[in-house]
Every structure is written in structure tokens, then in C-alpha cells.
Design goal:
The complex is a heterodimer of chains A (249) and B (434).
Chain A (H helix, E strand, L loop, with lengths): L17 H4 L11 H92 L7 H14 L2 H6 L15 H35 L14 H31 L1
Chain B lengths: L2 H17 L4 H17 L1 H16 L6 H14 L2 H13 L5 H14 L5 H18 L4 H12 L9 H10 L3 H7 L1 H21 L12 H26 L5 H18 L5 H35 L1 H11 L4 H18 L2 H18 L4 H17 L5 H7 L6 H24 L2 H8 L5
The chains are: A mainly alpha (249), B mainly alpha (434).
Chain lengths: 249, 434
């Protein structure tokens, strides 16, 4: 008999309703109308609250900065405002290079833990960490080169100052500018070429991954490029500063 | 211009710039690149520079340097040097000049965890000098032994000097470390002997301190054994081929961290500071290494190392005469330059020459490190002396005079090492690993 058999499910969907599929979440159309309205108003009110807070924050921020810039523009004039710009950039760059050095330092600590874990795993659990050899080498790029800018900031790069110390301050400023210029050339070349190399390796169809872990090389090349780049930026700052000292008198 | 001429011009310019105070790494990178560009064309020079940079910055072998630097940083931050000094003092303090002897022993122990010469001298200057002053030691003796003992830092493994030699010459860093052990111990003994003789001649230099009992002596060992154990673990592991020098560096740094954390000598802030210091120093090292390898590539293209070694072997001089000339040159360089700078500048040319003359590479490395150490403490420019004068309140003149007896001991020590090469080569040849 035709009424004995179960009705066939419509071909375009399963015979489960939305409420059965997700018992805790009802479809919007299944809810009573008052509930829908409630939900919608709740959402809009939350949205409104958020936008108003955001607007308040931005306006406060704008007022704060405008007061600041207005003061700078009025009292110092645009010339001095421009003069202030390098020192602000310098502060930002110094903060950046310090942050990068901290990252490098923690990568270094991680390298230490990795080698210890590898040795302990190899001799005590017969289960070395796979690819430690590669990882340590690749992390070294970050650990070694991201501290370059900080190293320059602290003037820790080796130089022989026995002779130069006897010169006058002005001559010292000249030799310093020479040093920073030479360093700037070197590190900006390295930064640029490492970036090109990373780009090349990124588009390389084969042979751009390490042997064991099959990690791509290009992020680490990019890391080297960034490390050399921050070094070059710090050198620009130092160069400007020492040139200013040369010109001052 | 022939390649050799370009190379010579490059070399002269390099010396000129370095004397003008331009940072060594910058000079090496730029001059190496400029030379390569002249000889090979700009584009190949640029790409070879990039390839060399990435290859060196990502080499597993080089990771040994930051890891041992980290270990040195942890050790310098904690009280390990002080404990070593206290231990040595209770054992030999009752002799005449005992505190000075103790300083030399403690320097040896400290050097066994720390790879830098100046850091050792500074640490010991802060610890041992006030103690010796309190016991009425003459400043001449106390500062002399501290400056001289500090130089043990780069002879006794782990040593940054040997690491740099290993990276630059492809010698095994493990073997170089092991080669430094016996000469280092003999150096400590020489310094003790010097102090003994000095105090025999002039008893007022170092009066003895009160006797300590056997019980106190053994109790003092309680604080020092973890450090000795760490040293034995690190060096024994390298010696037995249990792990590579890089792994040894990781274990050493971790061990130093655990020891100083367990004794609450290292706060989290101190830990971060150590890490930051190490990041700074390893950036310095890596810049130097990159420069060295780019410049070496340039030198290799000009064939100057080959020409130099051919010229020297063709001179027909006795090879020991050449060795003595080179030693004198290193002493002069050691007065003016930093040890890393000297190595980076001289090894590419001199090392092939010396091996061509038939000297054992390990033995020559030990002699080189030892001689640069002498330069570091020789007046009037010795870097260790300048560093030390910042820590102790003694005029430079007394520092200069105080260090003279130890310089004589150093020269005798070097003569001994030259006369008996097996002192440096015996242990590495016995090594189990390759």
C-alpha cells in the first residue's frame, strides 16, 4: 500500500531539520519572533556600544596628538619639528633593534634546549629529536644576525681604537663616519642580495627545502636579510649623528 | 693589474682602515666584496657574497660559538668564580703567597667554564683583588697574577680562540679544545712556581694566611664539585666522542644555567640579561666570521696565501727562525689588537704557510693562542691590563711592573711548548673520536 511506506526525503536536502542537527543552536527562522527581535537589538546595541567607545577613544587620541603636534608646530615651527624627527626615528629603531636582540636571545636559549633534548633523547631514550642538526643551523641565522643592530647600538663590534683615541674629537667623528659608511655599504648589500636570494628560492620549483625536515630555506634567508637590514638602519642613524658632529663646528 | 697585486692593495687598504678605527668586520666585508667585484665582475661577486653569508650564518659548526658564549655569560653572572677562589684559598692559603697561588688555580677553574680572557681577568679582579688587599699582599703581586691568570681563559677549554681557529681553518674544534688542556694545566703550575719564587725572594710580597684544617678543606670542595663535574662532562663528552662540540656547548650552557639557578644566583632578570649579552656577542662574532669568509674568498681568488707560503718555504731559512719571527709579530699584534681580530686577519695567510713548513696544525694553534695571550698582558697596551685597571684601584705603572715576572714565566712556558710538541698533541691523538 502506498501509505504504508515512509515518505521519501526530498532530494535536495537531508530529512533532518536544523534544530535536530544542532540541538543547542536553532535556526533564526525557527525561533519565535520576539526572540529574534531581542537578539537583533542586543547585537545592534552591542555594536553601538563598541562604535561609541571606539569613537571616544579615537577622538581622545586625536585630541591628544593634535595638542601635541599643535604645540610642536606653534612653539618650534616646522623646521624644528623636522629636526626632531630623526631623534624620534632613532628611538624607534633602537627599540626595534633591542626587541630583535631579545628575540635572538630567546631563539638562542631554544637552541640550547634543543641540543640538550637531542643528546638526552639519544642516550637515555634511544629517540633523538629528528633534524636537530638542521634546526640548530637554521635557527643560528636568527640567533646570530638579529642581534647585529643591538650590537651596533652598544658599539660592540670589534675595532682597533688605540691610534684613533689620540686624535681630536673632530677627527674621531670623521673616522667614525667613514666606519659607519663602510659598514652601511656592506650590510645593505648583504640585506639586498639575501632578499633577492630568498625570492629566488621561494619561486624555485625543487631543491628549496632541507634534507631531513623538508623545511623551506627562504624564511631563514629572509631572516638574515632582516637582520642585516636592521644593522644597516642602525648604521644610518649613527652615520647621521657622526656627520652632524663633523659639521657642527 | 694581476690578481696578486689587487690582493696586496686590498690587504694594505684593510690594514689602513683598521688602524683608522673602522670596525674589522665592516672592512673585511666591503673590501672582500670590492676585490671580488674587481676580479670576477660585480654580479658574481654580489651573488657569491650572499651565498657565503647564508652558508656561514646557518652552519651547524658555528653554533658552537654562541652556545659557549652563553655558558660563559651564565658562569660570569653566578658566583662560580668566587666559590672556586674560596676553595683554592682554603687549600693553599697557608703558604707564603698562598692567596696568589689560589688566584691562579681559581683562574684555571674559572677558565674551564669561561671562554674569554678579559672576562676571566675582570671576574677574578673583582673577587680576588679585595681579598689579597685585605691580607696585605702587595698590589704588584696581586694584580700581576690576576692579569696573567685571566689569560688562561682562552687556553683552557672551552675557549673562544680555539673555536675561531676551528671555524677558520676547518680543524676539529673538539681536538683543539683537548689540545689546550695540558698546556693550560702547565701554565697554572708555572704561575704557582713564579709566585713561590717571588715570595721566597721577597717574603713581604705575600704573607701567609692562617692555617685551615683538613675538615675545612674538604668542606670547601662541596661548592665546587658541580663546576668540575660540568667541565668533565663537557670535555669528557668531546674527548670520548659522545657528542659534538656544538652539543657540548648546549649541554655546558644548560648545566651552567641549572647550577646557577639551583643556587639562586641567577634571577630571571639576570637570565634575560645574560641572553641579551650573548646575542650581542654572537652578533659580533658572526659579523666577523662573515667578513673573514668573504675576505678569504677574495684572497683565495688572488692566490696570495699560496704565493706567501711558497715564498716563505723558498726562503731556505730554518723553520724555527720563521716561527720565532711570527711569534714576535703576534706579541706585537697582541698588544694592539683584540685576539679575535688578530686571528681573523692572520690565520688565512699564516696558517697554510706554517702547515706547509711542516708544523703540526694543532700544536701551532696552541702556540698561536698562547702567544697572543702574552700580547694581551704585555705593557704598554695589553688589553687585559687596561680592563683590569678599571676594576682595581691601582695605577697603571704598578700593573706594568707587576706583570713582568709572569711574562718571563710565559716565555719559558712557550719555549717548553715549542720544545716538546707532544704536550699539545698527545691528548688529541689519543682521542676516541675523529
Amino acid at each position: 500500500m502506498p501509505w504504508d511506506c515512509a515518505p521519501l526525503a526530498p532530494p535536495h536536502s537531508s530529512n533532518w531539520t536544523a534544530s535536530q542537527r544542532l540541538p543547542h543552536k536553532k535556526a533564526l527562522c525557527e525561533l519565535p519572533r520576539w526572540k529574534v527581535r531581542d537578539l537583533l537589538t542586543g547585537f545592534t546595541s552591542r555594536f553601538a556600544r563598541f562604535t561609541s567607545r571606539f569613537a571616544r577613544f579615537t577622538s581622545r587620541f586625536a585630541r591628544f596628538t593634535s595638542r601635541f603636534t599643535k604645540c610642536m608646530w606653534c612653539e618650534m615651527g616646522w623646521r624644528n619639528t623636522l629636526m626632531k624627527l630623526p631623534s624620534r626615528t632613532e628611538g624607534g629603531l633602537q627599540a626595534l633593534s633591542k626587541v630583535m636582540a631579545v628575540i635572538a636571545a630567546f631563539v638562542l636559549a631554544f637552541m640550547m634546549l634543543l641540543t640538550v633534548g637531542d643528546v638526552v633523547g639519544r642516550y637515555f631514550f634511544r629517540h633523538p629529536i629528528k633534524g636537530t642538526w638542521e634546526l640548530v643551523g637554521l635557527f643560528l641565522v636568527c640567533a646570530g644576525t638579529w642581534g647585529l643592530g643591538y650590537c651596533q647600538m652598544e658599539k660592540a663590534h670589534i675595532s682597533i681604537t688605540v691610534l684613533v683615541k689620540r686624535f681630536s674629537r673632530r677627527v674621531q667623528a670623521i673616522t667614525n663616519s667613514l666606519a659607519y659608511l663602510i659598514g652601511l655599504v656592506g650590510f645593505s648589500l648583504i640585506c639586498w642580495r639575501m632578499f633577492l636570494m630568498a625570492k629566488k628560492y621561494y619561486f624555485l620549483p625543487k631543491g628549496n627545502i632541507t634534507d631531513t625536515l623538508e623545511l623551506p630555506y627562504f624564511p631563514f634567508m629572509l631572516a638574515l636579510s632582516i637582520g642585516a637590514g636592521i644593522m644597516a638602519l642602525m648604521l644610518v642613524v649613527d652615520l647621521v649623528r657622526s656627520l652632524a658632529e663633523v659639521i657642527r663646528k | 693589474m694581476s690578481p696578486a697585486e689587487v690582493g696586496l692593495i686590498g690587504f694594505t687598504l684593510m690594514i689602513l682602515f683598521i688602524m683608522l678605527g673602522v670596525n674589522v668586520a665592516f672592512v673585511l666585508i666591503v673590501l672582500g666584496f670590492a676585490g671580488l667585484a674587481l676580479l670576477m665582475g660585480v654580479e658574481p661577486a654580489l651573488s657569491s657574497m650572499a651565498i657565503i653569508s647564508f652558508e656561514r650564518a646557518s652552519s651547524y659548526e658555528f653554533a658552537v660559538a654562541p652556545l659557549f658564549l652563553l655558558m660563559s655569560a651564565f658562569v660570569s653572572r653566578s658566583d662560580i668564580g668566587k666559590e672556586a677562589y674560596v676553595m683554592a684559598r682554603t687549600w693553599v692559603g697557608q703558604f707564603r703567597g698562598g692567596l696568589a697561588m689560589a688566584t691562579s688555580v681559581a683562574c684555571g677553574l674559572f677558565a674551564a667554564c669561561c671562554g674569554s680572557s678579559l672576562a676571566s681577568a675582570l671576574a677574578m679582579g673583582k673577587i680576588a683583588y679585595p681579598e689579597m688587599k685585605r691580607h696585605n699582599y702587595e698590589a704588584r703581586l696581586s694584580t700581576g697574577i690576576i692579569a696573567a691568570g685571566g689569560t688562561l681563559g682562552i687556553l683552557i677549554p672551552p675557549s673562544m680562540g680555539f673555536i675561531l681557529i676551528g671555524i677558520l681553518t676547518q680543524l676539529s674544534i673538539g681536538k683543539l679544545f683537548i689540545a689546550g688542556i695540558i698546556p693550560g694545566i702547565i701554565e697554572v703550575l708555572f704561575y704557582i712556581l713564579t709566585v713561590y719564587l717571588l715570595c721566597k725572594l721577597r717574603p713581604q710580597l705575600g704573607p701567609p694566611s692562617p692555617m685551615t684544617t683538613i675538615r675545612q678543606k674538604f668542606r670547601s670542595l662541596k661548592t665546587t664539585w658541580p663546576v668540575v663535574l660540568l667541565f668533565l662532562l663537557v670535555i669528557g663528552g668531546i674527548y670520548g666522542g659522545v657528542f659534538t662540540p656544538t652539543e657540548a656547548g648546549g649541554i655546558g650552557a644548560f648545566g651552567a644555567l641549572v647550577i646557577s639557578m639551583a643556587r639562586r644566583q641567577l634571577t630571571p632578570a639576570g637570565f634575560t640579561e645574560c641572553l641579551l649579552d650573548t646575542a650581542k656577542l654572537s652578533a659580533m662574532m658572526i659579523a666577523l666570521i662573515l667578513g673573514a669568509f668573504i675576505f678569504n674568498q677574495f684572497l683565495a681568488v688572488t692566490r696570495i696565501p699560496f704565493i706567501a707560503s711558497e715564498w716563505v718555504t723558498g726562503l731556505g731559512l730554518n723553520r724555527y727562525v720563521i716561527l720565532i719571527i711570527i711569534i714576535l709579530m703576534y706579541i706585537v699584534l697582541g698588544m694592539l689588537f683584540d685576539i679575535y681580530a688578530i686571528m681573523v686577519l692572520t690565520i688565512p695567510i699564516l696558517f697554510p704557510t706554517m702547515t706547509a713548513l711542516g708544523f703540526h696544525p694543532l700544536w701551532y694553534s696552541v702556540i698561536m693562542v698562547r702567544v697572543i695571550e702574552v700580547g694581551l698582558i704585555s705593557p704598554p697596551f695589553g688589553i687585559n691590563l687596561f680592563g683590569l685597571s678599571g676594576v682595581v684601584d691601582v695605577p697603571m705603572g704598578i700593573l706594568y711592573r707587576g706583570v713582568v715576572p709572569f711574562l718571563i714565566a710565559d716565555i719559558v712556558h712557550i719555549a717548553l711548548l715549542i720544545a716538546v710538541p707532544s704536550l699539545s698533541t698527545f691528548l688529541p691523538e689519543m682521542m676516541l673520536s675523529k
